Amino acid sequence: MSRLVVVSNRVASPTETKGSAGGLAVGVFGALKDSGGVWFGWSGDVVSDSVANQGPKLEQDGAVTFATVGLPKKDYDQYYRGFSNATLWPVFHYRNDLAVYDRDEYAGYRRVNSWLAHRAIKLLQPDDVIWVHDYHLIPFGEALRSEGVTNRMGFFLHIPFPSPQILLNIPPHEELVKSLCCYDVVGFQTPGDQTAFHDYIVRHAHGKASPDGEVEAFGRKLKTGVYRIGIFPDEIAEQATRGEARQDVMDLKQSLEGRKLIMSVDRLDYSKGLVERFKAFEHFLEKSPEWRGNVTLVQIAPPTRSDVDTYQQIRHNLEYEAGRINGRYSGLDYTPIRYMNQRYDRWKLMSLFRESQIGLVTPLRDGMNLVAKEYVAAQNPDDPGVLVLSQFAGAADEMTGALLVNPHDIVGMSEAIGRALSMPLAERRERYEANMVMLRKYDLGVWRDSFLADLRGVKLNKRPASSK
Ligand code: ADQ
Q1: What start and end residues bound the annotated signal peptide (predicted)?
Q2: By CB distance 3.0 to 4.6 Å, which of 11, 108, 194, 277 could disulfide with 41?
Q3: How do residues 36-49 score in pLDDT, each as one tens digit?
Q4: Which CATH architecture has domain 4-230+445-462?
């Protein structure tokens, strides 16, 4: 089997791939171990120009090489903080209102992608299969092609692909889609994302797209597909039970004094719908006085991208809302919302999920949302909690046992909380079983293996695309 080269914005460290990190790192590393290969990307460090140009730092773990580079401050600002996270992220999550566009940042985004491609070329062998991940790296494949690289190249988009009317808001939309067409396989999380891409190809790129995923545009043929990212449910269940007896979890349980627990865990991001969720919980307490003092919402949200303006704003809003609601409903021995900003060990999060009666996962828009899946897998099958899930998370397609909500509908979410809290055991078990069937059917191994099988099997274009 030919070697695999994985390219992603951030590279997990060799220790993270051993299980302490999220499922994605473990899943990608599994594929790399099977075929041997390289994991290439940014180290997460901002460094001087001279250090950045020293060449990738290499670490070996068996047949896998971890190759990382640092980024100079200007590149970090334009590529990462700028175009990736202040333009692409908001627009792809349907938040044009929060997006800014700056030509220099876009130029920086393309320049850094070309620079990264140059660094990667030295590590490539002729029949390596290259798998590029996510919105930071859309032009990476095109940059390799323009250097004459003809290897099999696939791209997987972890976030939603917006409908054309939304995408048109990004001035260089056509260049971005053309860049995507330089890959041999482009993978999406849901059929809706794939359809949005096909719509753009047909209506705005004058190309062809068939329902089986064959696309022709910009002089290239490629395959698109839906590959739902999943988790390894047994691994999560094991983490959840391993943690059960640990002191921290026992302490939390004791401090709840028999109150019901609602768990929410997200990166602190405006796409995750946290303000709306807090308001729904407030509405629930307002309309259900019998639950005041008897149910606690634990929101864990470690800050990310805190140097992007909109992220500072969401943090302030949340602190304000949590304070306001707690001021309204707290008692001497009761705090309705416990809002925490730190990261937690995975076993601890999973065992907290297992202790809780509701997993409240209500993003305004989400590519998939792995927390929803982890919540279900962590439950005790004999006495499972209920997943309350946004209809706008990619996971909503599969989690047929969840209570689906519209995260803009505060009253609807509040009603779902009430329904979940008083749901009979038989219904909870039924819903849990339905979700588990899907979690097993589309686990992380299926995601990874089906994408790679398509990439290894796809018919290649005869000539590389022109870089013009
Ligand atoms: P994210 O937006 O990061 O991922 P998600 O899919 O929920 O969202 O993954 C978050 C991961 O981080 C989960 O594994 C979760 O357990 C972990 N995590 C969150 N908070 C944590 C904390 N406080 N401590 C420790 N771990 C924490 C992007 C897309 C998603 C898509 C994934 C994967 O935005 O839509 O599902 O990629 O493709």
Answers
A1: none
A2: 11
A3: 999 999 999 999 99
A4: 3-Layer(aba) Sandwich (3.40)
